[in-house]
Amino acid sequence: MISLKQKMLNLLHETVAYYSIDPIKLRSRSSDNCFYSPVNSGQPDSKGCAIGRLIEDEDLKKELDQLQEEWSVNIRELLTDRQFENVTKQLPEYLLQFPPIFLNELQILHDTNGHWNINGLTDRGLNAVAEIESWIEEYEETPV
What we know:
Distance between the termini: 16 Å
Largest sheet: 2 strands, antiparallel
Order of helices and strands: HHEEHHHHHHEEH
Helix content: 55-70%
Low-confidence stretches: none
Mean pLDDT: 91
Strand content: 5-15%
Strand order of the largest sheet: 1-2
Number of helices: 9
């Protein structure tokens, strides 16, 4: 069985590999905004933002974009604030296994323009990945 730490590392590295192929086309951004749905970003080659690409339901991605626009809410807040419970119940179980803070850091890595250039991660982006890796290393799983 793969540990949660290993799953987080795998997702982090897979996310970096995915967006490094072509950050401009794949990062699901439009002007200053990031979108769960590539439809809303006008980036048809993208599968969505770092969290959005893990969600298959396009209507749910659009709903998350609307919440982000109306409430300026990030994925950590969506997962921890009871007022969004009706939406978070719709998220795939795969996504819900991860700590909200990890998903938020993954999203920040994706969203921050200074982390990416046309070739992939910048030095600043590499530093952000190293910080997330360190956080994962120190993460202690709590029994359910």
